[in-house]
Inverse folding.
């Protein structure tokens, strides 16, 4: 069942369109990530859901409540939206203790004293902060501060939690740990998560669905597996992992690069729509390319680096660099040798993507 | 850095000794002399004597007045400064960028010139505003008497509130907006956020600015000298001045002056300590990472009324007094109405080109300011270099001495150099221009240290190590790497000293002789002697020099930054 709903949402900053005609729904208890490079409009979208930015067109709903509507000229301020939110720079208040930070939203709700105490302690317990309750958040580490921010956001038991790159100020090893903590909290409290990040592995690990954005336009909304295995276009493909692109021309018999013979690919047929274009792009992950003794697409090995468990090859194919990664025990060519590449899991995209 | 330790005097030790020497001779020695004279005046510690000096009604009243006027000024300035800072950073006030610059203008203007202008406007009998109300509108009594505690507080507030304004608007701008946004999403409205989050977070900045004003106002000479003295209202610096001037060298007067100065030194030290404590509490690291613009309060219907209030404030506190100075400076005789036939440029011509006294004053101020700025700039670079970059034993002493210039008010320095350089210790500079120069160096050392320390701490050690790794000697590294990088700091130190020194009054008024009047002293004494129109004309010229100087700096430093 969908809870948050965005309909034709558009946001402009002056002449620049930051978010263009956005439509999506987020279910109750779902973890939904918005992924994209900086400036793609993901944070702006989150801030429109939170209410910090008004919208220039469209409507945003939560449940049966309207949050923003351009048509009706309606806008509910952030303090009335009942969301929890966690920011990148922690944003815990240094003049209040950890306990007071977490109790702040509850006090504003004018709850009974016992209930405030009970719910604050509950939130502190689930974020492992009970021992630090009396401390100043300034004395906590980065991870500790972010836990305070999480506890404060979930104290009011919100139906939706808005997370704006909450882990990117943390050390890499802490980041992974906190991911699981957030997941555990979600399981316990059952809130939906709207998660903004530019880190694709973070999005994959956490989310039920991922939205990939570029320059304010949605590129794909799918499950992490689908986004990874079937990227909707060249941009999504390149953003989601290490990627190789090769310009090729198509004919009935198969494909060819500028210098190679025609290579046929009967097992992975090309979309009919793409077949009508003469030049298309072959996209492939480094782990999905093999070396053949002959045939395939020819290239010259430029560099071979031993990375421990894997070996990284850089092959020059008509001026394009193709990266290939193989296990350290698998055989491979040596630097300077001509090799033959087999793209055994290719993706085909139009040149214009 | 790997410096091989050599026994005896290394270059680093020599630099350290010179640095310590400069601070001891120019700052520590005069201050110690004051404290020594105050506490051990008769040879031994004599508490009874100090008590009798302090409990003398005249001294006691001056102490009270200093505290009272400073408290009022601090209160008003904090309210005004915080309000305007909030207005230009957190609301959608029109022309915010312009208003932000305009609110800093009072910083440039010397407050004793402002006091002279307000005397012309609000003198109970002859002030233009009072006359207008009584003659034209038929009021039976003057609307405001500027020769009052409230009058002095308000005049000081006009020129001091930027201390709070700068601190608070800076804190509000640097503050991470998500601190307020997270309160909003927690359910707090703008009023609650302001009360529970924003104000507590900027409170250290507010307090720090307020303490600066307290310190400045307690030791402030000009306004009280112009508006209080002839009506029997003295504060500490004006009483010190009175004691020194009334009784050239009389033992009891010097003693009273040193006791008063000691009170200033001690309260200044307390205030500086308190301010560092408030600002230093690392609890308030509120500068955040990536952030959007802070939430702006929509003033809606109040936008233009509030803009009007701001503009009105500027017009009343900056334009009106300045205009008064220039108009009075153009009058044939003070008291005549401002009509075309009464106004001319004759006075300006006279003080600029004909009158030896004023010509000398301008010349003295320019040369003194220039000399003090150059000397202090170079001394400051050297001392800051030792403080920031050198690892050498004995630096602790220098660090302690380095704080001293920040906490010694001008009137204290003037008294200190009189005690130190009047022949008692073999050198007599009294009544020469050199004693003013020595005092200026002590007074402005803090500015130079601040600017140069900031510039030097930007130069990371690795930049110098990289130069040495490339084969540069210590000397070459200093010349080719460090100096070019700290040059902006030196330049700003120069102007930070040169401009205030041009309009300086507090120090030079205690040290001048008929041949060594500075610009500030000339304006002040002419005004005291009733030469009001010449005083105003000279003040007008001083204002023009100050504004031109400020524009010049902006141009030079602005060009350097690009």
């Amino acid at each position: 069942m969908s809870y948050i709903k965005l309909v034709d949402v558009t946001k402009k900053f002056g002449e620049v369109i930051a978010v263009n005609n956005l439509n999506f729904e987020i279910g109750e208890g779902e973890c939904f990530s918005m992924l994209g490079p900086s400036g793609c409009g993901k944070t702006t979208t989150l801030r429109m859901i939170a209410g910090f930015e008004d919208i220039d067109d469209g409507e945003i709903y939560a449940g049966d409540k309207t949050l923003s509507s351009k048509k009706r000229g309606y806008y509910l301020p952030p303090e009335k939206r009942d969301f929890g939110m966690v920011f990148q720079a922690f944003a815990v208040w240094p003049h209040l203790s950890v306990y007071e930070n977490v109790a702040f939203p509850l006090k504003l709700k004018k709850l009974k004293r016992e209930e405030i105490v009970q719910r604050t302690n509950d939130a502190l317990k689930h974020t492992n902060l009970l021992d630090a309750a009396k401390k100043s958040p300034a004395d906590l580490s980065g991870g500790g501060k972010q836990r305070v921010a999480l506890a404060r956001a979930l104290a009011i038991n919100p139906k939706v939690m808005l997370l704006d790159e909450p882990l990117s100020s943390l050390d890499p090893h802490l980041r992974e740990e906190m991911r699981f903590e957030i997941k555990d909290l979600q399981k316990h409290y059952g809130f939906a998560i709207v998660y903004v990040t530019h880190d694709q592995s973070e999005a994959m690990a956490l989310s039920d669905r991922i939205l990939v954005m570029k320059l304010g336009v949605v590129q794909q909304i799918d499950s992490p597996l689908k986004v990874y295995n079937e990227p909707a276009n060249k941009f999504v493909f390149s953003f989601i992992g290490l990627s190789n692109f090769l310009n090729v021309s198509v004919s009935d018999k198969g494909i060819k690069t500028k210098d190679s013979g025609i290579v046929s690919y009967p097992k992975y047929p090309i979309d009919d729509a793409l077949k009508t274009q003469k030049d298309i792009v072959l996209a492939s992950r480094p782990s999905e390319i093999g070396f053949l003794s002959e045939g395939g697409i020819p290239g010259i090995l430029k560099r071979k680096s031993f990375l421990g468990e894997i070996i990284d090859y850089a092959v020059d194919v008509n001026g394009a660099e193709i990266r290939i990664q193989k296990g350290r025990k698998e055989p491979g060519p040596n630097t300077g040798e001509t090799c033959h590449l087999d793209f055994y899991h290719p993706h085909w995209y139009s040149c214009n993507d | 850095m790997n410096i091989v330790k050599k026994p005896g005097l290394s270059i680093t030790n020599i630099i350290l000794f010179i640095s310590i020497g400069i601070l001891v001779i120019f700052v520590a020695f005069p201050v110690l002399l004051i404290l020594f004279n105050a506490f051990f005046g008769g040879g031994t510690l004599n508490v009874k004597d100090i008590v009798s000096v302090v409990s003398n009604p005249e001294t006691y009243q001056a102490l009270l007045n200093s505290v009272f006027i400073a408290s009022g000024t601090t209160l008003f300035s904090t309210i005004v400064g915080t309000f305007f800072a909030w207005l230009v950073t957190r609301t959608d006030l029109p022309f915010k960028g312009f208003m932000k610059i305009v609110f800093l203008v009072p910083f440039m203007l010397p407050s004793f010139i402002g006091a002279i202008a307000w005397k012309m406007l609000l003198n109970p009998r002859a002030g233009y505003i009072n006359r207008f109300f009584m003659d034209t509108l038929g009021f039976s009594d003057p609307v405001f008497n500027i020769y009052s505690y409230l009058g002095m507080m308000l005049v000081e507030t006009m020129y001091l509130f930027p201390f709070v304004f700068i601190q608070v608007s800076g804190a509000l701008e640097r503050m991470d907006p998500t601190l307020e946004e997270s309160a909003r999403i927690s359910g707090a409205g703008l009023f609650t956020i302001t009360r529970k989050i924003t104000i507590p977070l900027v409170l250290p900045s507010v307090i720090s600015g307020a303490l600066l004003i307290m310190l400045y106002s307690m030791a402030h000479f000009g306004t009280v000298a112009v508006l209080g003295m002839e009506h029997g209202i003295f504060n500490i610096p004006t009483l010190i001045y009175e004691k020194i001037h009334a009784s050239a060298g009389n033992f009891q007067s010097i003693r009273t002056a040193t006791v008063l100065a000691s009170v200033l030194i001690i309260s200044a030290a307390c205030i500086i300590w308190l301010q560092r404590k408030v600002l230093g509490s690392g609890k308030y690291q509120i500068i955040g990472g990536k952030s959007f613009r802070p939430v702006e309060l929509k003033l809606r219907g109040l936008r233009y009324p509030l803009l009007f209030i701001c503009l009105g404030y500027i017009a009343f506190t900056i334009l009106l007094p300045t205009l008064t100075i220039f108009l009075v400076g153009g009058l044939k005789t003070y008291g005549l109405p401002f009509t075309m036939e009464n106004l001319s440029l004759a006075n300006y011509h006279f003080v600029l080109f004909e009158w030896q006294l004023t010509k000398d004053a301008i010349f003295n101020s320019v040369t003194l300011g220039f000399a003090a700025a150059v000397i202090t700039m170079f001394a400051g670079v050297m001392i800051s270099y030792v403080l920031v970059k050198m690892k050498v034993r004995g630096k602790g002493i220098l660090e302690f001495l380095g704080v001293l210039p920040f906490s010694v008010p001008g009137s204290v320095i003037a008294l200190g150099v009189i005690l130190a350089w009047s022949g008692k210790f073999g050198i007599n500079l009294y009544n020469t221009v050199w004693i003013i120069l020595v005092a200026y160096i002590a007074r402005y050392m803090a500015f130079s240290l601040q600017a140069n320390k900031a510039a030097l701490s930007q130069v990371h050690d690795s930049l110098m190590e990289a130069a040495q790794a490339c084969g540069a000697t210590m000397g070459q590294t200093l010349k080719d790497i460090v100096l070019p990088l700290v040059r902006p700091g030196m330049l700003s130190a120069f102007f930070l000293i040169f401009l205030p020194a041009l309009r300086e009054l507090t120090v030079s008024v205690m040290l001048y002789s008929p041949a060594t009047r500075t610009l500030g002293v000339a304006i002040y004494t002419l005004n005291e002697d009733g030469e009001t129109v010449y005083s105003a004309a000279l003040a007008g010229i001083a204002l023009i020099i100050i504004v031109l100087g400020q524009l010049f700096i902006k141009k030079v430093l602005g060009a350097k930054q690009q």
Observations:
- Chain A has nine helices and 20 strands.
